[in-house]
Amino acid sequence: ITISNALQAMQELEFDDHNDEADWQPAYEVYIMEQGIPLPGVSSQPLQDAVQELERLVLPFVQEAFKCKECFPCTAFVRRYLKNERLFIPAHFDVTAFSTIILPLSPAANYTGGFFVQPKAHMNSRAFVHLDQGDVAVHDFTLNHGIDVREGGRFSLVVWVSETRAACRGSSTPWHADRALRGDIVAQHILGMMYGQGNGAPQDDARALEWTLMAARGGLANAQFSAGTMYMEGRGADANETAAHYWYSKAAAQGDASAQMIMARMYAEGIGT
Fold first, then answer.
1. What are the two backbone dihedrals, phi and then psi, of residue 159, each rounded to the nearest 5 degrees?
2. Shortest CA distance to 244 belongs to which of 234, 254, 256, 253?
3. d(C-alpha 230, C-alpha 236), whole Å
4. pTM of the predicted model as reported, rounded to 2 decimal places
5. N or C: which end of the chain has fewer CB within 10 A?
6. In this predicted model, what pLDDT tens digit does every residue of 24-78 receive, in sequence order?
């Protein structure tokens, strides 16, 4: 009943087509909770009930699984994936969440594809996770994941969990810096993104490149691609086509399709070689 009511309430919302940070394409999502507080005018009672049920039933698991006794549900939003709107989100990391809870509101029979994980750069490592209506998926910020709805339509409720209430209320993500300093290459990459975008950290291209290079040297293909782009565009350091070529080649060797396409063009045009 909770899920059916939430789905009906979601379908009555006016969806925002602002750009998604994962690929800067229209998101078709509606935020219903920020800083742990339901947003007036959009967070109807059925949607609040669904979030509260996730907090009651799933948050204890999150706290135990990720060893965060103070984990706090911070942000919640609903998304739709429909033909002629948005059906795909490329593999990415959730930058502002310590942990993510995903509740599909649509029956699995309504679509093919859906939520996938991609542990390596090459899309051949992509694996779809079967989620039926009422199932729940939980992951932390180190999981490379995305959405690919091949047919039909999909509706979902997502809750981003912060490591602490204070971090949520302060719109901060201190866990990235903590883990980056301990050598976590995903955290280093995310910290680089945050400095580069000025999202959750002061905009600073030099610091962005510094952290990105740490993750790239650690072997993270996403960071290697980003390092190549930063050197190509002269962000954080003087433009350096040779360095760009080097890092793009590292990402390409791991199967990153975008890096492979760029390498083909660089070889064809004699850039950085």
1. -120, 125
2. 234
3. 7
4. 0.93
5. N
6. 899 999 999 999 999 998 889 999 999 999 999 999 999 999 999 999 999 999 9
